[in-house]
Design goal:
7 helices; 28% helix; 10-stranded mixed beta sheet; 291 residues; alpha+beta
Length: 291
Amino acid sequence: YFDQYGIIRDVMQNHLAQVLALLAMEPPVSLHPDDVRDEKVKLLRCVVPPKEEDCVLGQYVAADGNPGYKDDATVPEGSLTPTFASIRLFIHNDRWAGVPFIMKAGKALNERTALVRIQLKSPAAPLFGSMDHLRNELVIRFQPDEAIYAKLVVKKPGLEMDYVMSELDLTYPERYRDLSIPDAYERLILDCIRGDQQHFVRRDELRAAWAIFTPLLHAIDARKVKPPHPYPYGSRGPKEADVLVGDSGYAKTEYEWTSYEARRSVDGQGSGRNSPAKRASLDVHNASPPK
């Protein structure tokens, strides 16, 4: 199945396009399904189809005893199907003009996660010297362990004017331990029973999402885009993807994150999950605060 479609058709055109629409759309008139989907369609129609230089493709290869993509007996020899893609998108409207949105998804990566990361600009005229290596970020994580957290530049306690990254963390399983958080498909099944179409794709919304990616997909199929870069099984993906993100204004912050699992392990409750898996993310880089 996967070799006929690739990572863009499998994850980006549908799942990540939905995340993009919900993140960047204007507030709907109400929570009625038609009002919500109207705003999603308006947003998707403003997305400029990516150019060839806005895309980095990858395909995982064998590493550390793990097989590569083409080692699978069901994959045709010499397959160029991408198992990783990083795509830079721009939204042509007043609110988001000039702000790059980076969609990234891949298989056999170093972690299994799905999240949105919004990085804000450094001050144009900082009072305390250059802070390009320290940027505020808002992160919304869908999987695993739903969470919303902000990475903030704060003054280190003490008499000196030193700055470090810290976080405001709302990890749902930790904060709401007595509540059962339903799975995404459980919510959708309940919506079906209730007749609530808010979280389902409308026909015009589907056309708008395909219109974003179809020109790039045709270019990939016609071999007009650089072939997938190899990346080791269990890595972060091809290095060329980091170059694309860096050129878009993203700055890697100096920060040591204490994960929810690590905090739980102090009490002997950690699950120790850390296996190479599928990752999907939507990054908004170099963004100004919303109007």
